[in-house]
Specification:
The complex is a heterotrimer of chains A (497), B (319) and C (151). With 319 residues, chain B is α/β, with parallel strands linked by helices. In chain B, 41% of the residues lie in helices and 21% in strands. Chain C has 151 residues and is mainly α. The longest helix of chain C has 34 residues. The chains are: A mainly alpha (497), B alpha/beta (319), C mainly alpha (151). The interface between A and C is large, with 65 and 73 residues.
């Protein structure tokens, strides 16, 4: 492997390629910070411009956008309580609380450090285990995915600090919202109310902006905290030694979870950070603080998210099967540059394969170098008086919503969800489990129904398949554990603190 | 009223002639609407066409993605645009399958849009899993007579659904569709032995074929695929009627002056048949195919009629 | 009857009504059977489940053992100013273009703050509107109209 990595360093470390990495990372960070615009749109708009440059340079730049977007997204989540993508929803829970306690700098730096360390480990996992791990993707069929989603949804209860039935209710609301749009199995339009923009479902960003960002703005404006909010005292920009000690085990656990689930096409990226948060809440020594600004709640999920972003390359590179639309685009870019992904990519284009692996490392390093100095700037933004800051956040959110689908209907829909978000705040209903329900719901239904089509209506398929049965057993275990009196006591203790 | 016009107005400050004459066309920004999200073959080929039309005409051609509702939102937008040739739709054969399955489209696919020309065609190939006891189409037909065969689709009424249904129909066998959000999900289930077969575009299945996780049965085209030269065609296998090619073409609002339509057709045919374009399309698993306005119009309308019939037979519809 | 936990009671009531709406809405779609589910099956089940959970949440709010909560004050004026500014932005973006719609959004929403004054709002609009136009339209090249379409 060492010799292989040397080939990679040789290929990737030209001045030109480092410049491409820098360009990609900068652009990626920018679009990550802006809500609504994802890496998908940016990569596809840039793709034609990369035809002229050499394949490795092009891929390095595109990969930089991909990672940069993930980095930038957590900054927005921490600063303005706005998740730009699914995985940042988890970062919000503790990250935004840290920011409100004047620890925005520490939170952003933690996110960067966690992402960097996890990204490096993830890259090594890709380099060492790409071939054997690829087969894991084959073993997951509809039944397995269904059971995995069940575990994810049951685990979502832990995202909330309120009562268990209330959190379950929010999950159900989210799954119901996920039903909006064309039913994959019959083509029926469900709950679209004659709006063509709803045919393909609710946009994630519409829901996120409404429930989180708008809800938070209204809450801050009306809670009488506005005077205090005007200046958030910032203690340190960088994590202290104590912070480092606390984040390290969480980063390690998050990296392990992320590396594992990242390999699963489709599901991996969206659930890695949720799983990590749920785990931290169960095992972390400081679990009592989770939800009110614990550094573990930022470090673990950010690590998981980035490790998964790396290992998501495994099915793409070694099987030619992309796990997400962005990966599909990367695959397209490879094909455009005459690289045929598949098991032979390592032997037929060793400099390219290993060059890409090494450039992932370079990209991760570059992102830390790029982002840490920016922390000071971001924190200074929070010192702008709130009366001038919140209209800016509103405008920024509206632009993000519009940019996603160029639909003004979406902007008004986001305002409607803003009202819902305000209601949730007033009633102490946590919106994070709802978002997880919204994201996993469609996959839950789809895989459930597909499993039954393929088994010709035999329900035993879910317990007959060993992987699926294991997940279902795990789900039951989690439910029993959290319903036990002791578990309940601990939960209410957490809520009180 | 529309996005495009606003921008034009901003740039050119209301000095535009109203009816563009053919020889002057285009003396203004042309917008190519792509009714899908960025990424994917439709977007890639559409952007290539726009870029080269701009060079060909020495004019500004911009791409606008208007995704949603299959391809209905972008198509409806163009159908309602000013009929002057400055707003073009670049869409795949999904246009005709949508027309057959969606009765409540916000526009009439035959009446409201004027077909202009075909940019390119691509080939589909039928693949089966290694667990399926079939090395060719004849084997598959035998298998389907003894047990239920499941084929993957990329959604109700998608081109992969029609390609699979057409194959079953022509071969006289029963196959059960299983719907996936994307072709790669279906390929993964084939590799895992849970799904039997899939009819999809050559570039999409190519890496799986090369990785040996699926085996190609037949190309659903009249000629063999350059990327898969050893795989026979459905015509060679005796199923001429099962030919299913995917195409990408350009439309504009009905009522556009015929001279303008002809001029755009000539532009498309010129820029998509160069050796450079051929090389570009080959990487997308596609080939250039020049067609006159009449030929393309007939092709589109015949296809809509054909899919409507098949959709009724197989009860493929979007409610 | 005294409702001790008012927040949970209202939350439960909302769950029940939303669940009921969804269940009624799903019933109009094809339900199918357990083996071959129609498009209505899954949302109907979700709606009924949510009603059940809602009843549970509301019922537990009635017991004297639980915590006591009050609904607090509901400053609907602020809510209306913020959200209607957003709606206004959505309505004006196409006809008036980004520059004017964004100015309206900033000037209108700023009134929601207790320490609102014209000077700050105008200064923020003067900085933010061009900055937004430069980032989204100039830098990222999104096709968003800047000026009213009448010109």
């Amino acid at each position: 492997m060492l010799a292989n990595l040397m080939i990679g360093f040789d290929a990737a470390l030209s001045l030109q390629n480092v410049l491409y990495a820098l360009m990609g990372c900068t652009l990626g960070t920018l679009i990550g910070i802006l809500p609504g615009l994802g890496p998908l749109a940016t990569i596809s708009m840039l793709l034609p411009f990369t035809y002229g440059i050499d394949p490795l340079g092009a891929l390095i730049m595109l990969a930089g956008i991909y990672y940069g977007a993930a980095y930038g997204g957590s900054t927005t989540a921490i600063l303005v309580n706005l998740p730009g993508e699914t995985s940042s929803v988890v970062t919000i829970i503790d990250g935004y609380q840290m920011a409100r306690r004047g620890r925005a700098g520490v939170a952003i730096a933690t996110a960067a450090i966690a992402s960097f360390s996890a990204g490096c480990v993830g890259t090594i996992v890709v380099a060492a285990f790409a071939a054997p791990l690829a087969t894991v993707a084959y073993r997951f069929g509809a039944a397995e995915y269904f059971s995995l989603m069940v575990v994810g949804l049951i685990g979502a209860v832990s995202l909330s600090s309120g009562s268990i039935p209330k959190a379950i209710g929010m999950i159900l609301v989210g799954v119901i919202l996920g039903c909006v749009g064309t039913d994959l199995n019959s083509g029926t339009l469900r709950f679209t109310f004659g709006q063509p923009h709803l045919w393909e479902g609710l946009e994630f960003i519409v829901l996120a902006v409404g429930v989180f960002a708008f809800g938070e703005i209204i809450q801050t404006l009306t809670s009488g905290e506005t005077q205090h909010q005007d200046v958030i005292p910032a203690d340190h920009l960088m994590p202290s030694r104590r912070d480092f000690r606390r984040m390290t085990p969480s980063i390690m656990r998050g990296t392990a979870i992320g590396s594992m689930v990242g390999v699963l096409p489709g599901a991996g990226l969206s659930i890695a950070s949720f799983f990590s948060y749920a785990l931290e809440k169960k095992v972390s020594r400081h679990r009592a603080e989770m939800g009110s600004g614990a550094i573990e709640g930022v470090a673990g999920p950010e690590a998981a998210n980035n490790a998964a972003a790396q290992t998501a390359f495994i099915p793409t590179l070694s099987l030619g099967i992309p796990g997400s639309p962005t990966m599909a685009l990367m695959l397209g870019a490879m094909v455009m540059h005459n690289i045929q992904p598949g098991p032979r990519v390592m032997t037929s284009n060793p400099d390219l394969f290993w060059g890409l692996i090494v450039s992932m490392l370079i990209g991760n390093l570059m992102l830390v170098i790029l982002n840490l100095p920016l922390v000071g700037l971001w924190v200074r933004l929070l010192k702008i008086p709130y009366r001038a800051l919140f209209p800016a956040i509103l405008l920024f959110c509206c632009m993000g919503v519009y940019a996603a689908q160029f639909s003004t209907f979406d902007i008004m829909l986001a305002a409607g969800f803003g009202l819902a978000g305000f209601l949730f705040k007033k009633l102490d209903c946590d919106p994070a489990p709802m978002i997880l329900g919204f994201v996993l719901g469609p996959m839950l239904e789809e895989n459930f129904r597909r499993a039954l089509v393929l088994s010709e209506g035999d329900f035993s398929v879910f317990v007959r398949e060993p992987i699926s049965a294991t997940f279902l057993a795990l789900a039951v275990l989690i439910l029993v554990l959290s319903a036990l009196p002791r578990g309940r006591q601990r939960r209410s203790l957490i809520a009180e603190e | 009223m529309t996005l495009m016009k606003t921008l034009l107005a901003a740039a050119l400050a209301a000095t535009l002639p109203l009816g563009a004459v053919a020889q002057d066309f285009p003396d203004d920004t042309v917008t190519v609407v792509i009714p899908f999200t960025p990424g994917g073959s439709n977007d890639t080929i559409g952007r290539y066409l726009a870029e080269n039309l701009a060079k060909h005409w020495d004019s500004t051609v911009v791409v606008e993605n208007k995704p949603g509702a299959g391809s209905a939102i972008g198509s409806a937008y163009v159908a309602n645009a000013e009929p002057n040739g400055y707003t073009l739709l670049f869409v795949s054969a999904t246009f005709t399958t949508n027309a057959a399955t969606q009765p409540n489209l916000p526009f009439d696919p035959v009446e409201d849009l004027q077909p202009i020309g075909m940019g390119a065609v691509g080939q589909f190939v039928a693949v089966a899993g290694n667990h399926v006891e079939a090395e060719n189409l004849a084997d598959l037909i035998e298998t389907a007579k003894s047990r239920k065969v499941f084929y993957g689709t990329t959604g109700v009424g998608s081109s992969t659904h029609f390609a699979g249904a057409l194959l079953a129909d022509v071969a006289g066998i029963e196959m059960e569709p299983v719907h996936y959000p994307g072709g790669t999900d279906a390929l993964l289930d084939i590799a895992g032995g849970r799904l039997d077969m899939y009819v999809g575009s050559v570039p999409q299945v190519l890496s799986s074929v090369q990785a040996g996780t699926v085996k190609p049965l037949a190309v659903t085209s009249e000629t063999r695929s350059k990327a898969l030269p050893d795989v026979p065609t459905v015509v060679e296998e005796g199923l001429e009627e099962a030919v299913f090619d995917i195409w990408w073409g350009v439309f504009t609002a009905s009522g556009t002056p015929p001279e303008v339509v002809e001029k755009i057709n000539a532009g498309i045919n010129a820029v998509m048949t160069t050796p450079e374009a051929e090389a570009f399309l080959a990487k997308q698993g596609a080939m250039p195919r020049a067609m006159s306005v009449e030929a393309f119009t007939d092709h589109v309308h015949a296809e809509i009629a054909k899919w409507r019939k098949l959709a009724t037979q197989h009860d493929i519809r979007v409610k | 009857m005294i409702i001790h936990d008012k927040k949970n009671f209202v939350a439960g009531a909302l769950y029940v009504s939303f669940g009921a709406l969804v269940a009624i809405g799903s019933a109009s779609y094809d339900l199918g059977t357990a083996q071959r589910m129609g498009p209505g099956y899954f949302p109907l089940a979700l709606g009924l489940l949510l009603m059940g959970v809602g009843l549970l949440v509301a019922a537990s709010a009635l017991g004297a053992a639980g915590p006591r909560t009050e609904l607090g004050h509901w400053p609907m004026g602020t809510v209306a100013v913020v959200l209607l500014s957003v709606v206004l932005f959505g309505l004006l973006l196409r006809p008036l273009g980004l520059l004017l719609a964004a100015t309206v959004l900033i000037l209108a929403s700023a009134r929601a703050h207790s320490a609102w004054n014209w000077r700050t709002s105008i200064i923020s609009a003067a900085i933010l509107v061009p900055a937004t136009a430069i980032v989204f339209v100039g830098l990222l090249g999104l096709r968003i109209p800047l000026l009213p379409s009448a010109f």
